[in-house]
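Design a sequence for this backbone.
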């Protein structure tokens, strides 16, 4: 939090707007088509599936009491947008195990659509709870779910504390999304009689790992006794279990296992998608400090306000001078950060030889090399060339630096 020492720590007169030129942005990265051919049909089917399930659930909840309907309204809005990245990855996994049937036919398969709905509802639950934990006021440019309930409290002039009411409403809405994700997953299993037994194991493991990863993320914000090297290793571990696995690896594995994919295929897909997932999170860490709010849907510097000990921040603390490191520590976790504070943190993270930004970009580059090597081995596991190409296209959209590095290698 802000204190009397903080003003002395800030480097007066050095504040200036800083742009990371080496980090691709949505405006200047030449991206491949998103989604891959056939994916647009899947997005339409999953959007319709989410809307249909949630509208049925809204009627069910409203039959209990009409005043409980806002629990579902928030989820309807949250699942109506987004790129549907996780359903698309599940679709690619299904196609990988199916020796690449017609993409549009795979996109319309009830098992693939139900899996997509399950992944979207799981993601909705994670986002709702994450926003509460991080005290985030916005999500995708709109009020986050718990803030919607706060606004309801104020608009209806309820008694008591609007913040507590908002937190309670958000938790319960997220709980419903998690429960209904399991229901949609059961529908996916029912529509895929050839599903491997591993499918349910993966889905349950995903729940456990995300929640454990979320707790470790919270712990890292308050347990400052860990040495820098250990803290960085923990940050990388959090990136894997809180984000990389459930965002990228497990959707692909669930799609493949749902079609009956066996151990060899699942291993090959895991080796390809896990580095992609970790790189995706590291890129997101960069956007959390340097991103454009119009593109991210979140205020710039939110990770700093929340005190996130990301790989970027921890690398910055190691790379900075003693004065700059003290300055960076002073701003972490301060919800009242000003624009000048954020610019100063950006300066610190992009200064030095090498800078924290450069080191994180190097981590992404190394993960990209691992992704490309494993991608090249997928045909040996029975994955068709169109599926591998679509996975590469999706990877380049998720992590623009992957595309830039890939184009450099081709030259």
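Sequence:
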């Amino acid at each position: 939090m802000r204190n009397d020492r903080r003003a002395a720590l800030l480097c007066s007169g050095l504040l200036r707007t800083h742009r990371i030129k080496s980090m691709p942005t949505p405006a200047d990265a030449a991206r491949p088509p998103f989604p891959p051919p056939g994916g647009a049909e899947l997005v339409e089917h999953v959007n319709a599936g989410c809307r249909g399930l949630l509208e049925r659930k809204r009627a069910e909840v409203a039959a209990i009491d009409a005043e409980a309907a806002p629990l579902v309204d928030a989820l309807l809005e949250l699942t109506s947008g987004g790129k549907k990245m996780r359903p698309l990855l599940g679709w690619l996994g299904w196609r990988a195990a199916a020796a690449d049937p017609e993409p549009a036919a795979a996109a319309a398969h009830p098992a693939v659509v139900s899996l997509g709905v399950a992944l979207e509802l799981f993601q909705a639950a994670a986002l709702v709870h994450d926003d509460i934990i991080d005290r985030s006021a916005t999500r995708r440019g709109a009020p986050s779910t718990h803030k919607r309930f706060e606004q309801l409290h104020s608009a209806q002039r309820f008694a008591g504390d609007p913040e507590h009411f908002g937190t309670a409403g958000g938790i319960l809405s997220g709980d419903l999304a998690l429960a209904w994700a399991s229901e949609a997953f059961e529908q996916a299993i029912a529509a895929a009689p050839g599903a491997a037994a591993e499918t349910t194991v993966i889905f349950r493991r995903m729940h456990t790992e995300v929640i454990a990863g979320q707790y470790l993320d919270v712990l890292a914000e308050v347990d400052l006794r860990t040495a820098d090297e250990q803290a960085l290793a923990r940050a990388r571990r959090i990136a894997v279990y809180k984000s990389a696995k459930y965002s990228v690896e497990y959707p692909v594995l669930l799609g493949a296992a749902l079609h009956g994919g066996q151990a060899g295929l699942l291993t090959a897909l895991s080796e390809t998608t896990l580095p992609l997932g970790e790189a995706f999170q590291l890129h997101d860490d960069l956007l959390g400090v340097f991103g454009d709010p119009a593109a991210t849907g979140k205020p710039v510097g939110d990770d700093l306000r929340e005190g996130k000990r990301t790989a970027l921040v921890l690398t910055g603390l190691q790379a900075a001078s003693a004065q700059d490191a003290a300055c960076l520590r002073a701003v972490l976790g301060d919800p009242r950060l000003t624009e000048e504070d954020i610019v100063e943190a950006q300066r610190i993270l992009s200064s030095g030889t090498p800078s924290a930004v450069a080191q994180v970009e190097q981590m992404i580059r190394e993960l990209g090399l691992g992704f490309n090597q494993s991608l090249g081995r997928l045909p040996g596991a029975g994955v068709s060339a169109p599926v591998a190409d679509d996975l590469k296209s999706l990877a380049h959209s998720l992590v623009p630096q992957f595309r830039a590095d890939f184009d450099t290698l081709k030259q």
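Residues 18 and 361 are 17 Å apart (CA to CA).
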